[in-house]
Amino acid sequence: MLSAFSRRLPDWLRHYRRDLFAGDLLAALMTVMLAVPQGLAYAALAGLPPHVGLYASLLPLVAYALLGSSPVLSVGPVALLGLMTASALAPLAAPGSPEYLAAAALLALLSGLMLLLFGLLRLGALSQLLSHPVISGFVSGAAILIIIGQLQALLGIRSDAGAGALMLLDIAGHLHQLAPLTASLGLGALLVLILSRSLLPRLLHRLGLPANRAALLARLMPMLLVVASILLVQSFSLPVAVIGALPGGLPPLGLPAADWPLVRALLLPALMIGLIGFVESISIAQRLASYAPSRVNPDAELRALGAANIASAVSYGMPVAGSFARSIVNAEGGARTPLSGLLGALGLACVLLWFTTLLRALPLAVLAAIIISAASALIDLRTLRRAWRYDRADAYALLGTLGGVLVFGIEAGIAIGIGLSLATLIWHASRPHIAVVGRVPGTEHFRNVQRHEVKTHDNVLCLRIDESLFFGNVRAVEARIMKELKRHPNVRHLVLIMSSVSRIDSTALDMLHQLNSDLRQRDIQLHLAEVKGFVLDQLQQADLLEQLSGEVYLTAFEAEVHLGGK
Amino acid sequence: MLSAFSRRLPDWLRHYRRDLFAGDLLAALMTVMLAVPQGLAYAALAGLPPHVGLYASLLPLVAYALLGSSPVLSVGPVALLGLMTASALAPLAAPGSPEYLAAAALLALLSGLMLLLFGLLRLGALSQLLSHPVISGFVSGAAILIIIGQLQALLGIRSDAGAGALMLLDIAGHLHQLAPLTASLGLGALLVLILSRSLLPRLLHRLGLPANRAALLARLMPMLLVVASILLVQSFSLPVAVIGALPGGLPPLGLPAADWPLVRALLLPALMIGLIGFVESISIAQRLASYAPSRVNPDAELRALGAANIASAVSYGMPVAGSFARSIVNAEGGARTPLSGLLGALGLACVLLWFTTLLRALPLAVLAAIIISAASALIDLRTLRRAWRYDRADAYALLGTLGGVLVFGIEAGIAIGIGLSLATLIWHASRPHIAVVGRVPGTEHFRNVQRHEVKTHDNVLCLRIDESLFFGNVRAVEARIMKELKRHPNVRHLVLIMSSVSRIDSTALDMLHQLNSDLRQRDIQLHLAEVKGFVLDQLQQADLLEQLSGEVYLTAFEAEVHLGGK
């Protein structure tokens, strides 16, 4: 009985080695110390009461620990999804209202269900939907939006201007109204965070700490800031905006209320949040893969992130994904198995049960500083520099996506990014390589007429198509064929050599049909040669082969033997 | 002086043959007869006063005639852009208000400027951004939305429900409130239009008319309906909603008023309208290319459509594109040169100057019938059927786009379509062909170990990559490499044979960097062989070649000679 039960446990738990426990426990403690301030901050970023961020940190950790394929990825609220949540919910309800909270949980639920579905359908390839430069542009743009959005809270200014650049201008115009106390608290905290990223690790290292330990300690600075600022505000009763009373105790459980119009309005944002969260999580898991022996499995990640979002939704949380900062603290802290995630959840439960009252005096300006510091780490100039040097089209796609996010906002930004990913593909595809070929005398080989001394016939034109045919290059291929036919006016037989064509999509099939009938009118026969077996099978299903004015030849040589003499 | 002037005239005008004039004139007259009812109808569809549709038909014809590359394409308001205009302007102003009219003209202006810019940048390849199935799904979905949206006007019912399926339900619930007179007028007109598409051509043909003449006459039925319904309403003073007084005279000229927030809100819709209008126009021009000897040039089309939209904007019009119905009437009517477009503009000017008062009694229900009939011709089941049989992924992309338009509306629908176009590419790309190869004994040729008897070495693994490397397949390639290394545990040298790789994008470059350092840790050297010249140049710009743990070999044979003995 017991052994039947134990056999159903995950591998890592059945074979758990005791010597790993200390590392898992220490990592869990450190992750909790970062998860508390970040959870509060990202909930605020999403327009939600801060405690929602703690709710969304608890159960998702458990769900991911049980299903995820990375032992170090730490799942919970992240800055990017906080911004996307705020952007999705803004038109639907007033921030902080009960409807808004319910909609945030519903968003997580829908997003989770979609990811779970994609995972069950084994659509892990979705993580390749966007190129690195486009993702980098999107994340950098979102980070800049996040920073601009937090300036008000950081400086204690009220602005009513929309978002992005407009808000920046408006804030600049209201700078004289800044609240000195709030601003000095916020800017001071920001300064500490920035210095702790650059100077503190080096300082600690010089004091004798190993470099990675020093960096790890410096990463826990947000918690130190939280404690220090709470003490400061309470000791001197400073008149600054604070987060106020948080509900104590574990999150209540329940399904978010939903009606069809709300679900419909949230479907698309949920899809985007799910995909972006997935793409980011998997890239974090892969960057940290060297900390643990197991390989990251995209399909398992889809299911685990789906479950984590559903877990967040039923505990009145918000959309969640893997957090880079917390995952690296987890990994560096010594986490080697998912037990660290389970212990982290336990730690967060303790915080929720007994320590929430301590947090009430946390100044909002410090939260803003934490958000800004985290967001500024997301701005990625290195990818832009590399892409600019290596592949200009990729650099333009990056800049276009970044600009799209800044000008049109986060959702249109993703659409623009997807469009640009596609556009760069099409751009390159629209210059397919096609060669006029002839036979190398004395052999059965056909080579490019421009590079080799070959034998050709006046009435036969042999074109070798060096890429698969799809909607992105059919027009270019057609134009090239027409150009070559113009150059060879005596041609009566056009032979397309398909040795490199491993796919013909419906758009290309339409083109071949059209080409066949156009050429028939001009009294030119269209032949195919060296068609791969499975491509031929596919063409047989369509009726192209029946309507073809010419023949299908096994080899170009066979075609020449047949047609050359005519 | 005169000859210098004449040399600046377009080719077709300098070499105009008099015998073409009768055809051009007749075609122009017929096009005008269709342009008047369609212009009125599509302006109404866009939420604009009907006369805007006539304004938008006049100058764009002139602009396109001077710059376009198709002598038969007829440019002006079209149903698809009418719907997209309404969707873009709905959140910005009340339909029919002065702000709404100005915004419609601004939309045309922005869209025109973008197309003109794309044309000057020679981005004609943009017409390949979407696959045929995705375009078909988008157009069918939009047509269904258009039809649902016109049911109110057709039946004389008032519905306040949003759009799409909801509106359909609401209308079904209000069916008992339908206005009998309006409904019978509308349904009667619709019946006539449907019959005139299917039965009338056959009937006329049986009465002795040639088939194409019969079809052409049947296509002019909308004008006949307009005249008949006006006579009916006026003779019997029928109490039905009519379009009312239209301003007479030529369109006034001027630039639409604009401020930055409005421009910003319209940029993305303008881009979508421009691209969709361009894609549709070019596909119409290509389908009708057989009517005229000239070839359709995508870059020239971009510039001409851009100019047409700008011309529409400065005459207080709306976004325009090539109309299939009017273009085929134009072509069948005998148009062989752009003169037919210029004569059509002249005809429309006459209508605006002298005949607008006759149109005031035109019932709105008849306009709705004209729109519904035109939209129903856009619903395309044939492409779905073919794609379903030939390439299931394409069929899913079609259905996904169609569903996206119906559920989320027209703009999200395009985004979904672009996403699905990309997704089908990625889907196929994520299964790249990679072969483990070995040397055919006695030769320098390397072939697939699964198909040929070849010689391999225990410590060298040769992989031939049969596709270009880009963000869509890097993960699959990496996974395959890892799998093969696991299968060959004694390998110390991995040779990637790049003979089929004609491009490596930045995402793939990142993967190669990562692979190189991962393998170095495992004490495996990474070598490249048979790298194409221009790919090598590109890799040299990045620092991959310096960091490569192994060598770059000219041929796989050279690599084997070097490494095989070690």
TrEMBL record, chains A, B:
Its main location: membrane. It is found in: Membrane. GO terms for cellular component: membrane. Pfam families: STAS, Sulfate_transp. Residues 450-549 form the STAS domain. Signal peptide: none annotated. It is a multi-pass membrane protein. One of its GO terms (biological process) is transmembrane transport. SUPFAM superfamilies: SpoIIaa-like (SSF52091). The chain crosses the membrane at residues 21-45, 51-67, 74-94, 100-121, 133-155, 175-195, 216-246, 266-285, 337-355, 361-384, 396-427. Keywords: Membrane, Transmembrane, Transmembrane helix. This is Sulfate permease. It comes from Isoalcanivorax pacificus W11-5. The lineage of its organism: Bacteria, Pseudomonadati, Pseudomonadota, Gammaproteobacteria, Oceanospirillales.
